[in-house]
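Subject: Re: docking follow-up (flavin mononucleotide)

Dear J.,

Thanks for your patience while I sorted out the input files. As discussed at Tuesday's group meeting, I've set up the holo structure prediction with flavin mononucleotide included as the bound ligand rather than trying to dock it afterwards. The sequence and the ligand SMILES I used are pasted below, so you can double-check that they match what you have on your end before we go further.
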Amino acid sequence: MAGSSFGTIFKVTTFGESHGIGLGAIVDGCPAGLPIDEEIIQQYLNLRKPGQTKYSTPRKEQDNIRILSGVFEGKTTGTPILLLAENETQRSQDYSEIASYYRPGHADYTFDEKYGFRDYRGGGRSSGRETLGRVAAGAIAIQFLKSLGIEICAYTKSIGTVSCQKYDYITYLTQDNLETETVLFDRISKQGLQELRSDKLASPLYMPDPKASLLAEEELAASMENKDSLGGIIECVVSGMPAGIGEPVFDKLDANLAKAMLSIGAVKGFELGAGFAVAESKGSENNDAFVPINGTIRKVTNHAGGILGGISDGSDIVFRTAIKPTPSIFSEQSTVNKNGDAVSVEIKGRHDPVIVPRAVVVVEAMTALTIADALLVNMHSKLDGITKFYNN
Ligand SMILES: Cc1cc2nc3c(=O)[nH]c(=O)nc-3n(C[C@H](O)[C@H](O)[C@H](O)COP(=O)(O)O)c2cc1C
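The structure tokens for the complex came back this morning:
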């Protein structure tokens, strides 16, 4: 299987299947000397862990992470970091039926067409469990970014038809350190980000709007009653981002973020800043005016979502991903079996009634991996920087 690695310098390879011995990641290219707090990695994994609320799969896994290499006396050594969590509660018999038919909306059919053979237990490599390795590796990238003053926060923007009203990147971005009368909307204050984080964690759906969270829970309960599933939108904010990061052609920062997001199972859409609304906007409305503020160049608005020409512009990066409803639903569905016969199926096993809350931390992890890599790739962009480094 090709394509299990992501990144150019800060490179991550994930491995493992849903019902195999274990899953994890190898991180190569992380600079030496980064203090690594294993507890922080575990905290991020716990946000993704199954069985935490009634809105996630009842599969109970500890997801205890072990670092097998690349960290010595609490710091990275610059060598590959191997992160491993063992599977503990496989119930592969629940999935034996799936071997014989193709679940609508899942990857069973395409895997068989491609490989002619698949680990059907829990979806094997196409399971949401694959994201465990991404989150463990992402937690290392998050610690690297934090040391540079860059912070990431993703949250549930909507579930089904219920949308979070309290936080909206256009209305929420606040005035920041202004000595002029110009109102700037391009930066979330540190306090704002902390509020967003704690409001998000107060909801079992990671939806930082108590009213919307309750309504979404009601909609989810009704959907579960009908043996159905729901989708939704995750919004992500990167704050403290310096200008000038990202490569201008194929490795545009927005292109790499889009790839990172669309590589997560069930993600079906990506939009940056004003997103798809730009199609109905006028240039005069959509352009973000530049203004000089205390010797720096800032933007009055942030429709661009913090990226121009594939390169960060120093504003917060703001984007959204659309997550489809969980494909494995318990109601009766029509499909085809391996012999090509039409069959009616009722899927068994343990499944998330909605993927969105569990994917929030996966979005943060993939964002961190993308930004960490872009920062390291950027190191050679100016001769000045190279001479300063080698002449020291
Ligand atoms: C965190 C997470 C949890 C998921 N949980 C489930 C699940 O319980 N049941 C299921 O059928 N799909 C689940 N998925 C989605 C499937 O992995 C995904 O839909 C499938 O691989 C097909 O890929 P595609 O939707 O990207 O086309 C989950 C995905 C993620 C990221």
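A couple of observations from a first look. The longest strand covers residues 151-159. Residues 57, 106-107, 123, 126-128, 131, 264-266, 324, 326-328, 351-352, 355, 358-359, 362 surround flavin mononucleotide (CB under 6 Å).

Let me know if you'd like me to rerun anything.

Best regards,
T.
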